[in-house]
Design brief:
The chain has ten helices and six strands; from the N terminus they run ββααααααββααββαα. It is mainly α.
């Protein structure tokens, strides 16, 4: 008897009045916000404009959701088009079922469209967003906990997840592979952030590192899962996908470092000009203050000049009067002198 385990939620839907809030969708939404928030901070730090990441995400996210669902439906078609299945269920994305490989592939197409419209290099944008994508996956994996899906082999470890009876599942305690992958993705995000600072990754290499590191974890976690999947040469399809994508990511890392070393100096046209203009606008109040101070000083000096002129004129009159008085006295004494 397992005395310690992670309990599963009794339901995957929370009702806010008449509005149903599905745990799976909620986790995905949180992941998107985390990715955009962190991606925006990294984009601005690289010299881009605030808000650009969110603008491009408007294209990337819908494409990514469609791509993730298509990959899942295609690779697990028997769940929707097999005997006794309803093909309409393929559109019920809230019930779970998103393939990260399809989400990244088609999401990249959407991001390319958004970047092209803004005149931005896609690799630079992907580098800024890479750790955020990993954190988004870490959040999204908890949607599997709400749906009680994608768990591993049975175990009595104290961190096992409890699964209740339901469609296509048997009650028991199993390896929480959703938790393993969530923790792995957090580690991948930290690795990419560290490596990006340490080696100044650019031209898509931070994104390639994220892809390679994720594939390493996904390979062994996928091997532990017991949900239905296609096998090729004894390995699950997603294990083979992880191997192929890992090799491609490493090849890109090596070739990119040789062909385009360093990092992009300009990631978004006009960002520097906007920064300079913003800096000038920020200095305007101070400059206006200096100008007003100078004008006030000039006005004070202008007012002082007439007073000084009047004072000098008064002094001149006084001296003139004094001279005239002195001259008069001399003239008065002069006749007297003649009489003597």
């Amino acid at each position: 008897m397992n005395l310690a385990f992670i309990p599963s939620p009794s339901t995957g839907v929370l009702h806010l009045g008449p509005i149903p809030l599905r745990g799976y969708a909620f986790c995905i939404i949180i992941g998107v916000f985390v990715a955009v928030w962190l991606g925006n901070k990294r984009w601005v730090a690289r010299g881009g404009k605030p808000g650009t990441v969110a603008d491009i995400a408007v294209w990337a996210v819908p494409f990514g959701l469609v791509g993730g669902r298509l990959y899942h439906v295609i690779t697990d078609y028997q769940l929707y088009f097999g005997e006794g299945r309803d093909w309409v269920d393929a559109f019920k994305i809230w019930e779970g079922g998103l393939g990260i490989w399809g989400a990244i592939a088609l999401g990249a197409v959407g991001a390319w469209i958004g970047c092209r419209r803004r005149g931005i290099p896609l690799p630079a944008w992907a580098d800024a967003l890479a750790p955020g994508i990993a954190l988004a996956q870490a959040c999204g994996r908890w949607g599997n906990w709400f749906n009680q899906e994608l768990y591993g082999r049975a175990t009595d470890l104290p961190w096992a997840v409890e699964i209740t009876d339901g469609p296509n599942r048997v009650a028991g305690t199993y390896h929480p592979t959703f938790l393993y992958e969530s923790l792995w993705c957090i580690g991948v995000a930290l690795l990419v952030i560290w490596a990006d600072r340490r080696f100044t990754l650019g031209h898509g290499r931070a994104f390639a590192l994220y892809v390679a590191a994720y594939c390493v974890g996904r390979g062994w976690i996928e091997y532990m899962r017991v949900d239905e999947a296609h096998h090729i040469l004894g390995l699950r399809l997603n294990v083979w996908t992880s191997i192929v994508v890992f090799v491609l990511a490493v090849v890109y890392l090596v070739l990119s470092a040789k062909l385009r070393p360093g990092r992009e100096e300009i990631v978004e046209p006009g960002a520097d000009a906007d920064a300079v203009a913003g800096a000038k606008d920020g200095d305007t109040p101070a400059e206006d203050g200096k100008a007003k101070g100078a004008e006030a000083k000039g006005a004070a000096e202008a007012e002082a000049e007439p007073k000084d002129a009047k004072a000098e004129a008064a002094d001149g009159e006084t001296e003139a009067e004094g001279t005239a008085a002195g001259t008069g006295e001399d003239k008065a004494e002069a006749p007297g002198a003649k009489k003597l």
